[in-house]
């Protein structure tokens, strides 16, 4: 059975990124995949980024998966073994969130083959995607601010495991009640309208993404 793993890199469990991941998971499940969601900001999950132990590079050692003993290790095992991997992250100060970055270091570095950079260590090829949510209003500004480099480099590195793609959700609803916050640059009415008209389309796109990834793997 196709195994699909969904990684929520947002601290919010039911906000934009999480909702899009849940729809992608519904799509994969409807395509027959066995699905799991991981909350990287779960307070009981203690881990850091790569600790530079180099266990993944030791001659004769286990390759392709991080063996540093902490709470992320079993999740990384499942990520490496998954047929489908979908990571979700908000843009935080122009980058993926810190917890997703730490996860990516631990996923990607063991796949980097120091003996042959052109052939990564891929224990199981997989289809993957990154779901990115943000205040940034559209794709043109995304490119102008250079998020195409700052953000997409992270998602693009999943390409070492197989075909990868990105789904963007722009101008998301950050607060339920904008009147409570100093946020004059984020007009409440525009945000509400966008959430009403565009976000449902993004949810549909996430569902189609999850379904497509699972069907094609
Ligand atoms: C710490 C922090 C930094 C942020 N930095 C950016 C940013 O650089 N660019 C941007 O477009 N949005 C930025 N945002 C807005 C979030 O990316 C946006 O609200 C996102 O959809 C939140 O995802 P969530 O609803 O899943 O938590 C930031 C939000 C926070 C909390």
Distance between the terminal alpha carbons, to the nearest Å? 10 Å
Radius of gyration over all CA atoms, rounded: 18 Å
Please name the CATH architecture.
3-Layer(aba) Sandwich
- Major β-sheet, in short? 5 strands, parallel
Count of extended strands: 5
Structural class: alpha/beta
Overview of the molecule:
The protein is an alpha/beta fold and 217 residues long. The chain has one domain (3-215): Rossmann fold. Helices cover 35% and strands 15% of the residues. Strand 3, helix 3 (98-108) and strand 4 (127-133) form a beta-alpha-beta unit. Helix 1 packs parallel to helix 8. It is globular. Bound molecules: flavin mononucleotide. The site of flavin mononucleotide (FMN) has 17 residues, from helix 1.
In short, what is this structure?
The protein is α/β, with parallel strands linked by helices and 217 residues long. It has helices spanning 16-30, 73-81, 98-108, 139-144, 147-150, 152-156, 188-197, 199-215; strands at 3-8, 34-39, 84-90, 127-133, 164-169.
List keywords for this structure.
single chain, alpha/beta, Rossmann fold, 5-stranded parallel sheet, 8 helices, binds flavin mononucleotide
SSE layout and pairing:
Elements: E1 3-8, H1 16-30, E2 34-39, H2 73-81, E3 84-90, H3 98-108, E4 127-133, H4 139-144, H5 147-150, H6 152-156, E5 164-169, H7 188-197, H8 199-215
Parallel strand pairs: 1-2, 1-3, 3-4, 4-5
The structure holds flavin mononucleotide.
Flavin mononucleotide is lined by residues 10, 12, 15-18, 90-94, 133-136, 172, 174.
